[in-house]
């Protein structure tokens, strides 16, 4: 396996094991995929993010954006678990 792939897998594993929360921080996910956190949030609000869930909010209710670790991990790895 190429060293860069090993390093990326290590970074992904480290992010998944960072805490016991079932969600990964948007900032951490953005860093892993080289994206801007605000772009990910907007994608989640628009319903176009393949790994995030959320709601953009309105005048009555604040919005939220979350990224489930399992969904994110499966999206990154295409559902394959490396050993």
In short:
With 83 residues, this protein is of the alpha+beta class. It is built from four helices and three strands, in the order αβααββα.
What can you see in these coordinates?
- The protein is 49% helix and 12% strand.
- The protein has helices spanning 3-16, 26-33, 37-46, 69-77; strands spanning 23-24, 53-55, 64-68.
- The protein has 83 residues and is an alpha+beta fold.
Sum up the structure in keywords.
alpha+beta, 4 helices, 49% helix, elongated, 12% strand, 83 residues, three-stranded antiparallel sheet
Can you lay out the helices and strands and say which pair or pack?
Layout: H1 3-16, E1 23-24, H2 26-33, H3 37-46, E2 53-55, E3 64-68, H4 69-77
Antiparallel strand pairs: 1-3, 2-3
Helix content: 40-55%
Uncertain segments of ≥5 residues (pLDDT<50)?
none
Main beta-sheet strand count, sense and barrel state: 3 strands, antiparallel
Structural class: alpha+beta
Strand content: 5-15%
Average of pLDDT: 92
Shape: elongated
């Amino acid at each position: 396996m190429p060293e860069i792939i090993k390093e990326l897998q290590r970074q992904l594993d480290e992010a998944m094991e960072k805490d016991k929360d079932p969600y990964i921080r948007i900032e951490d996910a953005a860093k892993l995929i080289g994206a801007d956190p605000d772009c990910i949030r907007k994608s989640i609000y628009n319903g176009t993010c393949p790994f995030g869930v959320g709601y953009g909010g309105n005048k009555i209710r604040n919005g939220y954006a979350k990224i489930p670790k399992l969904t994110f991990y499966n999206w990154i790895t295409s559902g394959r678990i490396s050993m």
